[in-house]
TrEMBL record:
InterPro entries recorded: KH_dom_type_1_sf (IPR036612), MOEP19_KH-like (IPR031952)
Protein name (record): Embryonal stem cell-specific gene 1 protein
Protein's GO biological process: regulation of gene expression
Function noted in UniProt: Involved in the maintenance of embryonic stem (ES) cell pluripotency. Dispensable for self-renewal of pluripotent ES cells and establishment of germ cells. Associates with specific target mRNAs.
Compartments reported by the entry: Cytoplasm
PANTHER family the record matches: DEVELOPMENT PLURPOTENCY-ASSOCIATED PROTEIN 1/5 FAMILY MEMBER, DEVELOPMENTAL PLURIPOTENCY-ASSOCIATED 5 PROTEIN
Swiss-Prot/TrEMBL keywords: Cytoplasm, Developmental protein, RNA-binding
Gene Ontology CC: one annotated term: cytoplasm
Length: 116
């Protein structure tokens, strides 16, 4: 990728320009972002500091997905990408289980009203 990220507050652990050249990219369902990164991205600075990377989010308007670009040294990028993919999958499964429980509860309520 030829363009550098537009952020002005590049963390001190990210080396400019070499760590900004080839970001790792993953796509996450936009609805999972708050669960992963906190309200208004409040956990992003902590995740960046612990992972020694810089994150940039780009919403893909038409698809309901957001690209997460991970900048940093090679190994830190790969580790952070794996961690973020794991977080997204965990939150997706948790949401799915919650929907299944809700569906079961709704079925039970409908069943109960038919018996009366």
């Amino acid at each position: 990728m030829g363009t550098l990220p537009g952020r002005k507050d590049i963390p001190p652990w990210v080396k400019v320009p070499e760590d900004l050249k080839d970001p790792e990219v993953l796509q996450v369902q936009t609805q999972l972002l708050e669960a992963m990164f906190g309200p208004a991205g409040s956990r992003i600075p902590y995740i960046e500091q612990v992972s020694k990377v810089m994150l940039e989010l780009k919403v893909l308007e038409s698809s309901g997905l957001t690209e997460v670009l991970v900048y940093g040294s090679y190994l830190y990028k790969l580790r952070a990408k794996w961690m973020l993919q794991s977080m997204a999958e965990w939150h997706r499964q948790r949401r799915e289980r919650g929907m299944l429980k809700l569906e079961d509860a709704m079925k039970a309520l409908q069943l109960g009203s038919w018996m009366k």
